[in-house]
Amino acid sequence: MAPPNSSAVKSRFLLKDIVLERTDTLIEYWKSLNVTELWAAGIPASRNSLSLTRISPRRWAMSGSIELSAEGDGLVFILKSEGGDDIGFVHLDKLDIRASKTEFEEKISKQVEMYDAHVHLTMSFKIVEKLLKSRFLLKDIVLERIDTMNESGKPLKVTELWVSGTPASPNGKCLSLTRVSARRWERVGSIELPAEGDGLVCIVKSEEGDDVGFVHLDSVEMRAFEADSKRSFKKDLQMCDAQIHMTVSCEIVEVPFDSIQEASDLATELTARGIMLRHRFKRTGNFADVAEAISVQQRAVALTPAGDPLLPGRLSDLGNSFTSRFQWTGSLSDIAQAISNQQKAVTLTHEGDIGLPDRLNNLALAFLIRHERTGDLSDISKAIPVIQQVVGLTPANHPNLPLFLANLGGAFSTRFERTGDPADVAKCILARQKAVELTPEGHENMPTLLMNLGNAFRLRFEQSANLSDISEAISAHMKAVDLLREDHHDMPSILTALGNSCSSRFDRTREPTVLAVSISALQKSVQLTPANHPDLPDRLINLGVSLMRRFELAGELADIEEAVSAQTRAIALTPENMLHATMLNNLAVSLMRRFGRTGNVSDVVKAEKAHQKAVELTPEGHENLPSLLTNVANSWRVRFDHSHNLGDMEKCISNYKSAATCTVGSSLIKLEAAQNWATLLNTHFPKSPQVLPAFDTTLGYVSLLAGLEQTVHGRYIWLQSVPGLALSAAAAACSLDRPDKALEFLEQGRCLVWGQLNNLRTPLDEIRSIDSNLADRIADISKRLENAASSRETTHTTMSLSEKIALEDESHSHLKLAQQWDELLKTARAIPGFENFLQPLPSSALLRHLPASGPIVVINVDERRCDVISLLAGVDEPLHIPLPNFSLDKAKKYRADLKILLRSGRFRAREEDASMVLGGEAAARPIRPVNRARRDGDIVHGVLCGLWNDVVKPILDALGFSRDPTSTEVLPRIWWCPTGAMSFLPLHAAGIYTGSKSESILDYAVSSYTPTVTAISNRVRNHRAIDKSVSGLFLTSQPNAPGATSIPGTTQEAQSIQSLAVENGARVLKLEGSDVTAGDCLKHMENFSSVHLACHASQDAADPLQSRFLLHKGSLNLATILQSNLKNADLAFLSACQTSTGEEKLSDEAVHLAAGMLAAGYRRVVATMWSIGDQPAQEVANSFYKYLWSHREGDSDGGFDGTLSAYALHHAVQQLRHRLDNSESSLLTWVPYVHFGY
Q: Per the database record, which ranges form the CHAT domain (predicted)?
């Protein structure tokens, strides 16, 4: 049989032929030496004193050899004289000795350090490496009682022998004993004697588990005994009870490693034990288990020959144990060992080996875990492609695929936390969803997979603030909790995840019940976590954060006391080298909250120290820096609230600025910092030159966070959380006499979503003339982005997992489109002359393309001030008109008064039957009379009069508008661009309608509205003629849409308009009721430049693209209209209710059907602010179209032109107005009609 491979056996090093020789001369020093003994320290044997033989007066020798210990630094020899005195010493380094073994044919000499400087000695020896080709076993162990029962009077119940030091279990193993008689116990089988170390310690245990006695069995002594004798080895036990005497005896057998198989069997046994110990360590946290696991696995690797197919797996297992120990100790040498072993394992694994995916996975995890400790991004960069390779190598039905997908998700999650790239968190969610989907119900890994999935949704929520994400996170975490027993070792982790998700939701929604769930989960997590567990500090920190939030909500001092206590304890439990900035940062925040309540200055001192330490621990460019700086700023803000010292406020603002201008970190956190920077600077230092840059930065983050990668619905939901920012910025600019900058702020920060849509539809003629390929790519991506934004459904918790995964796939594709769009814009802006391509236009550019027929009037209403910015063609600068007599409070009051009035009279209802009578004629649209208590009131008069006196008349005066009832000249036009609360007020009807001095805006100008200045400027700049082939009017009436009240007047309205069209030779198509489907309607809208919709409308303010027109056969929503090709769209007359009403929470986003139709491509839109009467609707429509056809220029060739639509509506409304009186109900009849667009 072949000898064992050298890698499967161990070796020991021997020093032999030791000689001491005197090298000085007796002439130099007359004293002779009597060396008799060599005392050695560091050898494995128990005897340290070695006798020397005197060969001559100058030479001494020692027979035999000395073994070099496997432990320690080496050997120390002390020379002894005949009288026992020390003469000199020499130290032999272990590494030097082992390195010299290849030269053992030559003797090695070392100089002896002598205590008598006149005497010189050298020590020489040879080094021999001896292979241990055998192992020693203790067989047939017998314990025997040798006292008499009469001496002690105590019977013994011995059941166990606990043995420490065996190669398989160096930290201890319990062996059961068999009772042969009342005085004898035996253990059948064998125990291996260690090749290294001091030997074995055996402790005898009683039935109750008490120690009875112990004995130390020396390895060298027992090997020597085996070599010298065939007798049984016997030794007395040291007994706990001095009256009892026992011996232990055994056979000592040397067993040669005479086959590779035997070494392999031992390695297999050691490997299995190591894995068991590591798993037990994870379960119990007993550090001794992981230490022993590493020890036995190292021995298993050493026993495994090179080329053995089992070696890669054993190296990987050893790496896993080092990883586990690193997670407990944080020692970088452990994780370095882990990575080294995993890399060797992967290198030694052949391609196609079924174990390769597992080993690659283990390597990637080691990289990720090291990154968590060091923050080195290169480790993530190494890990992600490795795990992607793992997933690619694993069959779809493989049971480990969910685990690999989960780990891939973890890698993307880790990188996202560092870089903030939304693509990474999207990939993370998708991978983790697939992992959950592939895992069978009831699988032990399901709770952990759900926890990780929930964590990913929470991460994305903290970036995007999309509430559906945090709902998914909490749902997943709750399912995970429900699947586990309370005593399961993963329960604290999952409870922590649930608590953190609820805390994140509370930060956004301020729901007390959610915060209560968070605190309960985190408290339970802390209770279930062992005192020595490495995750306990982080769990205490999280609990402290939620308690602090409750203190902020309810003001209970006990909550902030408990928060500080928990976070202080967390830091005390954390080793100095494991402290991280987040822990210190959170403690500092809690301390400052407590200071804000108690005024205890010591809290400020502690908080400053914690913040300073946190900053020191945070490297430049770290993703948490904005959060840390924000909290530092918050602390200075609390100090200012107590001190009123502007120096404290300056430090507060400085830190907010630093946070806002960081190049890394969460955009959401940086937006919060920028808001505070701008607001506080404007409040305390309003003349600072930094005010405008601060607001610029803030609005930049708003645009970024409402990006094209989100659905339109998602963007609107997010924008509700940052209302009025552009208005505050504009007010600040006006106070600094910068109306140009105020205009830019309003254009940049309002109507974001419609602006994005307009950008996607921008004509590309100029780009195409330079780079047609680039223009085609921009056109393609813009169309796909537009479709994705309007068609992608939002996930909700009731969906099946497969549906959620499909939507997540769509979301990821949408995100990639947005990233491609950004790259295309960078390419386009690199072309000379296109540096500002699709950038918000500067004021100077807006002023170059204004309508000649009248001014655009932007009205900004803010808490601090109200201003008008008027733009006139041919004027190089905006005209700034302050409105000192108007205020935001007035605007809100007018809006509230009208809202109450309209609701009480059902002017916003669509379902009830009509019963209003105007001028003796029955009305059939959903409109009801104002109740009698309010009919004689003056709400509408008051609103219109207030708007006239405080807003509209001062503007007209500043612009030089005059009233001349006798003039036959065409009235000038005026485009109103109101902001905020002004968006809901009827500026176009402002006036005094009672008394002898009645006058109104209708006497001075023809009013239109525009959502933004850019909307009109773009029309002027990109004016195109309507294609004559589609010029015409499509009409439809829908009097009986399912679920809506009957509006029979629409039928007569459409018939009358068709008759007028035919009389005037216009191209017209009328379809009624069930004659047209939504699809048909859209097709006809593409084939006719103008459309008249006489029907019910339903406005969805939460998701404006779902606002719709109700037909007999289905409905036509705005999203569908937007996706169609309406490049020749001209006029849309929306003879329906509330088509320009808007939504208070999104007052600056123009979320109504009128603005939506402008975005779809229509140049002008007639709409209504509230419900309209059936008969007046017919009158207005007929008058409107009669005016258009009677004022057309030249031969229309059967076409239809809506250019004069604003004048036509003005004329039609005036006709209705003059037919009615000036009562409130009469005003409510004509005031709702509005004109939008060019």
A: 947-1237
